[in-house]
Amino acid sequence: MAYDEGLAERIRQHLGSEPDITEKRMFGGIAFLHSGNMAVGVTGDDLMVRVGPEATDAALARPGARIFDMTGRPMRGWVVVAGSAVAEDEALSEWIGQGHAFAASLPSK
To answer: Is the pTM of this model over 0.90?
Structure first.
């Protein structure tokens, strides 16, 4: 499955100066990890964000967000955000910040 390289590049630019960020092919797209924990990624034209179980409901209330479900088993703590909902840099930055903060709160892998 192809992914939106333009969206991936925007994420790279945002996270470029962050320490401990790596990229890895995952879920048919690309993921950005902080110390081995996924923070955000791109699948197709959409943004994947790891928000954590406690923040899932609030994240799902935001425009363009839906539960992350690639296998028929929804993953609590993860959301997918429509690419159109992160077309503006401010919205993308907010989602990246949330995903990065959650990943940074986890023990390194």
So the answer is: yes
Name the residue range of residue 80's domain: 5-104
In order of 22, 29, 92, the CA distances from 45 in angstroms are 20, 10, 13
3-state SS assignment for residue 55: helix
Q: Tell me the pairing of strands 65-68 and 75-81.
A: antiparallel
Structure tokens belonging to residue 108: 């390194």
Pairing relation of β-strands 75-81 and 29-34? Answer: unpaired
Domain count, the chain: 1
Structure tokens at 28: 């048919």
* Domain harbouring 9, CATH code: 3.90.1150.30
Q: What is the pLDDT of residues 65-88, one digit of tens each?
A: 999 987 888 888 999 999 999 999
